[in-house]
Structure formats: C-alpha cells, structure tokens
Write a structure and sequence with these properties.
heterodimer, A: Glutaredoxin, elongated, B: 523 residues, alpha/beta, Rossmann fold, Ubiquitin-like (UB roll), globular
C-alpha cells in the first residue's frame, strides 16, 4: 500500500509527518493527483496517524478540495460583489444551461480580486475580463477545438 | 547621460493589470531595451492604483514621474512606439502618444495619503535591495537597537490604531495582553485570509510591498515576545503567495528573519500557510483551527487567542494592513501619523475603480464622487456598501459622513476590512441583501444552529420577496429572524450575517415594500 502515492512521500517528509500539516498535505496531494480519492485520503490518514473521519471531515470542509476528478476544462464564474452587480448571476445560470458539463466544469469562485474586469470568468486558471454568455461560449469552443 | 541612467519604466504586475496584458507589455519593452542596449530600467511593480484604467505604467525620468493608462490599446502599439522613441527617451521623459496621461493633480492621486502603500507601485516587490533603499527594515533595526518592547506597545496604543481586518479592536490593547502573558513561547499570526467579496486591500499590500508587512510582523513579534510567525493567506491569491515566499527567503538571507534577527539575540521566523477556501477562517478562532490542520470552525471566546491560540500558546492575530501600518507609525511618530489612513478597494457602479489609501475621516462623498469620479453616465448613486457580507449600506443622502469607525457604525454599517462597493439607481437593494445572505448561507460552517439554519431561512425569505411572492408577514418574519440570528450566533459570521438585510431595511425599506405591493396587487 505504501508504494501507492509515492510522490506524496516527499511532502509528508518535509512536514515531518505532523498532523498539523494536514491542509498542506491535502493541497499538495490534490495538486499531484487532481482530486482527493478515498484511497488517497486513507493513505494520508494512515501516514499522519489520524482517524480517517478527521481527514475526510477536513477535506470535505474546504471549498478548494475536491473529492472527484475534474472535467477537462474548468470554467469558474466570479460571483464577487462587483461581478454580481454587473451580471454574474445570469451569466452563471446561462452557462450552466448552455454548456456541456461533461467537457466543461462550471462553478463559481469568490472574488478573485480583479473586480475592474467584472463580470469575469476564470478558465483553467486564466482570467477573462468583461465576459458575456456568448463570448465565453465562443472562446471555450476555440479552446476545445 | 546621468538623466538617462535614471529613466525607469514601471509596469503594474498586479492581478488586475496582469489580466489585461501588462506582463506581455513589459516583456515586449524589455526586449526592445535589451536589443538596443538602452540605459533604462524596466521593472514590474505592485498596484499603481486606478485599476479600471489598466494596464497601467509609470515613467520616471530624473525627478519627475508620470502615470499612464494603456486602457483599450493594442499592446503591440506601445512596443512599436517605444522602439521608435528610444532616442528621445535618453533626453526627456517619454510620453507615449497611444496612452492617456494622469495629471499629478488628478484627484485619484492627489487626495490620497499613502502610508501603508507608500512603496507599493514604486519598488520592485521581488527586490529586497530596492525595498531596503527605500527604508524597509529600518524601523525594525531601530527597535532592536533600543530594545524596549514596552515603548513600542505604548506608541501603538497612543496612536489609536485599530485592527484593520473588520472588528476594529484597538491594536495596542491586543498587543499589551499578549505581551503580558507569562508563556515563554508565543505565536504571531497575520490574517491574510481576505475573504470579503469585493475586497483586495491585503492582496495589494502583499503583492506590491511584502517587506513592509514582514517588517511590521517582526516588530510586533519583538514587542509581544513571539518567536514563531505565520501568515495565513488565501489560496485564491497565487501571485501574493509567490511574492511572500520570495520575500521571506530574501529577508532570511539578509538576516531580518531567523535565529538572530539583525545580529541580535531576538529570534523570529515566518512561515506561510495557504488556506483552502473557507470564508469563516477569517474569524480568529476558526483561523487557529485551520492552522492546526483541522476543519476551520470557530469556538466560543474566552479564552481569547491572546491567552490560548495556535497550539494552545498565547497568539497575537492581526490583519495584513494593521501590521503594514506599524513601520509607518514608528517612522513618522505619533504626531505626524495622526489619525492614520485606511486602504479601500473601490468598485461597483463607478467611473474609476481601484485601490486607494485615504486619511481616516475622509468624507465618503470625496471618495466616491471626487476620487472615484461618481456614477456612470446617466445614473445616480444610490448607496455605498461597506464591510462586505458583515456590513451594510450607506444611502446617498448620508454621503457626507466621514469614514471612521464610529460614524459608519452609527449608520448601521461597519468599516470592515475596506471593501467599498458603489451602487447606482439601477440596483435593487433587496437583490443585494439576498446576494450577501446567499454568501453567508454557503459559508456558514454549520457549528451553531442560529447561523446554520437561520441563514437558510433568511435566504429563502429574501428569495420569496425578491420573486414577488412575499407578503407583509414575510417581511415581519424576516426582521425578527434577523435579530435572532444576530443575537444567538456563535461567531462574527453569524452575528453579522443579518447586517446587510437590517441595513437595507433601515435605509431602503421602499425597495422591499415595492416588491410586496406587486404581489398584493396581483391577488
């Protein structure tokens, strides 16, 4: 079992196998493997000598941890106040209706702090300013083709 | 020759300008400069201020310095013009034709008082040499020379500095209570989990001038006797995280952090903890749990973190802007520091948005109408929202209110961390209240019932009213439930969750009644 998730060993070692480093370990694990599967969480629990319930409980508490693998493309609509004022709500709703969610994962993100481009979306980590539903769909199609 | 050697182009590399292509511009100009072996400096700096006009860049030539907006231009255009004007560059300050120049008298620039952001946008945030040249770590050096922690706490107390994170607790008192704890090991935490939607003051400081923050933290640690420093920063700010990592490594290498700070027996080091996305972690006891690797849920106080914090040690927790105020306060002294300043992020329905730092007590009208340029064409300002999901709205009729803790509180809102969202007459205030309630509903950690269930019920009531299905009884229930959630919740998130509703009910009851009338008329 210990041969699984070898890449994570280094991270665990760097933190001295301390339970206090659980958040850092989970973040690194997600970065390495894309998501936190149950097997991965059990592995972390065993190595940090924590009950599985605590690891699972922590992983499910925070928004940035995901327990299932992501879709190929990620489209996050910013729902901060400035974006909300300038139409993020309808944008999110329309994208959910019009995009194929098996190829594009649609979600929301809390204010990325660049309000001056509102409403904005974050596509695969890149910020696109001043977007409308058609413009996002056109750009995403270009990305997918 | 001597003039040309001092010519410097400063490109904003903060998240907003970056998303508008400023990095591409900087690389293009750097390439031209390298190719032509120009004796000028091109550097990336932190936020230059009026973000809505970005990408922004500034030209320093000799003693003059000018800010330019490259809004809506083709980025290749600037590089081409730069290439052609390189000979002129050596002799005079360059004024690119394709850009818009900001006059130094422009109110956006002239009405600010930059203490916390003094070096932000001026220095290269990745260079500790530049920061030191501008005075970074000089106050820490002086403090370690005089070796009088009590004097620092006294100075902070007398300055009247209050926590900039939202609650506004007097910083000097907090420092004194941590310093008074007998424990030999103490922890100092910088709360950089800036979660309010529409707030990005802390991001600006961390991205633009990380060394001021590190210096403030080290001074705080010396004053209260802490050895371990932690910056808890939210994961949504990757650039700030990079810059902090870099700055901490540099500060260690230069002896400003580590086992012997500045060659004295004082030991203090800072580690970076990255959050995982939970608004409630801005609450100090939840923040402590998160640092300890647990679910970020608050606990009842007392014991306060000053008594029992990270790993049960006495812990001083302050916000980024609070720490960043310390070097300026010590440099200027009490009299010149005066009432201090507050950094705001100004956004919403306004001509110019951006990050500003104004003297404490500046009237809201000056901020919104003079600095921000007022409402969009054909609209009027209806309200200004301060304090994010824990705050409230100031109606346009009260715009002459000075911005300070007490005046805002009297209006039923709070200073908060500094998010300021301007709303014009196209805004439905019920929709705003519902927006913030949906936020709190989602972010409630679920520990205490009033918050967990109350925010759900309040959200549903607000949706009902918003969709025109609400009755007078619903409005009554909304109000009474607001008071229950406010009084009975465990932590600040729940206690303040009803504030946007109560504040809009107080100042914009008409917006609610209009929605009710619609429904009654249709029956």
């Amino acid at each position: 079992m210990s041969r699984c998730f070898q890449e994570l060993d280094e991270v665990l070692k760097r933190h001295g196998y301390q339970a206090e480093a659980l958040l850092e370990v989970l973040a690194a694990a997600q970065h390495l493997y894309g998501s936190l599967s149950e097997m991965l969480l059990r592995h972390v629990a065993r190595t940090l000598l924590l009950p599985f319930s605590k690891v699972q409980g922590t992983a499910s508490f925070y928004q940035l941890f995901r327990l299932s693998p992501p879709a190929p493309q990620q489209c996050l609509v910013c729902t901060g106040t400035a974006c909300h004022l300038l139409g993020a709500g309808p944008l999110l709703k329309e994208l959910r209706e019009q995009l194929d969610t098996t190829t594009v994962e649609i979600g929301s993100v809390r204010c990325v702090g660049t309000y001056s481009g509102a409403p904005l979306v974050v596509i695969n980590g890149e910020i696109w300013n001043h977007q409308t539903t058609p413009s996002v769909i056109v750009h995403l199609k270009e990305l997918l083709s | 020759m001597s003039r040309s050697a001092t010519t410097c182009l400063r490109f904003c590399t903060s998240a907003s300008c970056r998303s508008r292509g400023s990095e591409h511009l900087r690389h293009q100009c750097s390439e031209v400069a390298q190719r032509q072996r120009l004796p000028i400096t091109i550097k990336g700096v932190g936020c230059l201020g009026p973000c809505s006009e970005g990408p922004l860049f500034a030209v320093d030539a000799g003693s003059s310095s000018c800010l330019f907006s490259l809004k809506d231009i083709n980025t290749n255009e600037l590089a081409a013009e730069f290439e052609q004007s390189t000979t002129a560059l050596a002799h005079e300050a360059w004024q690119p034709r394709c850009s818009k120049r900001f006059s130094p008298k422009d109110p956006f620039l002239a009405l600010q008082r930059r203490l916390v952001l003094a070096q932000c946008g001026r220095i290269d945030p990745e260079s500790i040499e530049e920061a030191e040249k501008e005075g970074a770590y000089r106050q820490l050096h002086n403090v370690l020379l005089t070796q009088d922690p009590r004097a620092i706490i006294k100075e902070v107390r007398l300055s009247g500095l209050r926590g900039r994170g939202g609650a506004g607790y007097p910083t000097g008192l907090k420092w004194a209570s941590v310093a008074a704890m007998p424990s030999r090991s103490k922890v100092l935490v910088c709360n950089a989990d800036e979660g309010d939607p529409g707030a990005f003051m802390d991001r600006t400081v961390m991205e633009g001038d990380p060394h001021t923050l590190l210096e403030g933290m080290a001074i705080g640690a010396f004053a209260v006797g802490a050895q371990r420093g932690i910056i808890f920063v939210r994961a949504e700010y990757p650039l700030a995280i990079d810059r902090l990592h870099h700055a901490i490594a540099q500060a260690r290498a230069r002896g400003w952090l580590g086992a012997s700070v500045d060659g004295t027996p004082f030991a203090f080091d800072i580690e970076l903890r990255v959050g995982a996305g939970a608004y409630v972690c801005g609450e100090e006891t939840a923040l402590i749990h998160s640092i300890e690797g647990c679910r970020g849920i608050p606990r009842p106080r007392p014991p306060y973190p000053a008594q029992r914090g990270v790993n049960s040690l006495p812990t001083l927790i302050n916000n980024v802007e609070t720490f960043a105020n310390i070097p300026a306060l010590l440099r200027l002294g009490l009299e010149a520091y005066g009432a201090g300043t507050k950094v705001f992020s100004l956004t919403g329905h306004i001509q110019r948005s951006g990050v500003i730092e104004v003297p404490m007590g500046t009237p809201l009208r000056t901020i919104v109408e003079t600095i921000g340029g007022g409402a969009r064409h054909g609209h009027r300002i209806k309200a200004v929202q301060t304090g994010g999901p824990a705050g409230g709205c100031v109606p346009a009729s009260a715009l002459d209110t000075p911005v300070d803790y007490e005046s805002l509180q009297a209006l039923g809102t709070i200073m908060g961390s500094g998010g300021m969202v301007v709303m014009d007459d196209s805004t439905n205030m019920v929709d705003i209240a519902a927006f913030f309630m949906a936020f709190c509903r989602e972010e409630s950690c679920g520990k205490c019932v009033p918050c967990r269930s109350g925010t759900v019920q309040l959200d549903m009531l607000l949706r009902k009213i918003l969709e025109g299905r609400g009755s007078g009884a619903d409005l009554e229930q909304l109000e009474s439930l607001c008071r229950i959630v406010k009084d009975a919740s465990l932590c600040g998130l729940g206690q303040n969750a009803p504030s946007p509703v109560l504040s809009t009910l107080r100042h914009f009851r008409g917006d609610y009644l209009k929605l009710l009338n619609l429904e009654e008329a249709s029956q």
